[in-house]
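Format notes (please read before filing issues)

Several people have asked whether sequences and structure tokens are stored in separate files. They are not. Every record keeps both together, in the order shown below: the sequence lines, then the token lines. Line labels are part of the format and must not be stripped during preprocessing.
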Amino acid sequence: MLQAAMWGAIASFSLLAGSITGLFLAIPKKIIAYLMALGTGILIGASSFELLIESIHKSGIVKTAVTFLAGAGLFTLIEIFLYQKGGSNRKRSHKNPAGHSGLAIYAGTLMDAIPESMIIGLSLLNTHKVDFLFLIAIFISNFPESLSSTVGLKQDNYSIRKILFLWSSVMLISAISSSVGYLFLENASPVMLSGIQSFGAGGLIAMVCSTMLPEAFEQGGPTVGFVACVGLIFSLSMSHPG
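Then the structure lines:
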């Protein structure tokens, strides 16, 4: 359980690192966009090549499709609610035209981070070792996410202390979520674990398509599509070495 918490904290540490970078360094928006696109490609690849393929092998295509779409559907419903509250701007580096939306941004960030961390805990149950591809995917995608969000929160006049508290608490909750995923599902059947993984994959892919890619395209232009493909190929090469 402690190992799961440790890896969950490591994966989400890039949230805090990205936040500190956004607070004290002026990073060109195109660089942020390219990092976000790269992380998007890696995360889509990791979800597809690791989570979905494994779920198909254990549960079949029908159960995998149902749980995957259920995860995507649940994320979409929550995203619709957050969209109305301003949380859809959580990955945006510009000022929120709707005004302050810190709580909605915080809720949206947790919605992204918790399933990612729980899947890390699940990977330890399945193989007794961390899935490094998924860990790398989360780490890389989290950095530009928090960097971009922090810039937007600064423009919304949030204090440095409040912003750092937000990301530090997300990192702590991510560590707890990873250990919870390990502890409470320790005796779950392989079919149930694969179903949870495909459910999480649906939520993650829906998340990057609705939040990360639009921000990357807005700031980086059409070339971000190629950068995302580079990330996808990186995922493929990591999951199928040689």
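For reference, the curators noted about this record: The chain has one domain: 2-239. The mean pLDDT is 80.
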